[in-house]
Amino acid sequence: MGIRQILALVAGVLLRPARFWQEVMTEGKLEEGNPMREYAVAVIAVMQLFKFPVIAEPRPAMLFAIFSFVLDIAALYLLCGLFGASSFGRKRKKERNELRAMVPVFALTPFWLSEPLFFADIWGLFAVSAAVLYVLLLSAQGLMSVPLDPVQPGSARGLWLVGVSGVVMMLVFMLQRAVIHFIIFST
């Protein structure tokens, strides 16, 4: 996946989420390739690079970038697994579970884009709060657009999955802020 495609996907997710989810889920826009590896890992890695000028020291910047990258990928895998296995006793279809597991790959984009702002005290908190709210909205829209088994708005399954997404993102934020305060700014 090239840079133009990644930027087009980011713009689609952030600016036209309803149309984006329709294209991805029903029209099979991303049939080829692995969106987790080609899109999510690329966006996470680029956002780690934006943290280097903020930290301004190579060693702590590299350690923090590695920590943040691993934490973001772990959260992504956790959420993809939960979303993919969320049939809750229903007859599972592999295609439907794969589509549902793809929801966090794109829905977490606002959170990843807000990561360089974690260094700003109160503004960082506002940025991450707005990003997490947008992640919740994108997750709900993505779950509602899964063909053959859309999650109804307000259903227990949808609220549980969206709530878990919010909790995981806030835990990632708190862990990264703790590392920022105790390791980077304490030196």
Give a verbal description of the structure.
This protein has helices at residues 3-15, 17-25, 35-49, 52-55, 58-84, 94-101, 103-107, 109-114, 121-144, 156-184. With 187 residues, the protein is an all-alpha fold. The protein has one domain. Helix 1 (3-15) packs across helix 2 (17-25).
Structural class: mainly alpha
Strand content: under 5%
Structure annotation, total helices: 10
How many β-strand stretches?
0
Q: Judging from the principal axes of the Cα atoms, what is the shape?
A: globular
Instruction: Compute the CA-based radius of gyration.
Output: 17 Å
Q: Low-confidence segments, ≥5 residues, pLDDT <50?
A: none
- Termini distance? 40 Å
Q: Characterize the main sheet.
A: none
Q: Approximately how much helix is present in the residues?
A: over 70%
Output the helix-strand order. Answer: HHHHHHHHHH
Total tally of structural domains:
1
Produce the secondary structure layout:
Layout: H1 3-15, H2 17-25, H3 35-49, H4 52-55, H5 58-84, H6 94-101, H7 103-107, H8 109-114, H9 121-144, H10 156-184
Helix pairs in contact: 1-2, 3-5, 5-6, 5-10, 9-10
Give a short summary of the structure.
It contains ten helices and no strands. With 187 residues, the protein is mostly helical. The chain crosses the membrane at residues 61-85, 119-138, 159-184.
Key phrases:
single chain; transmembrane; Yip1 domain-containing protein; about 190 residues; transmembrane helix; membrane
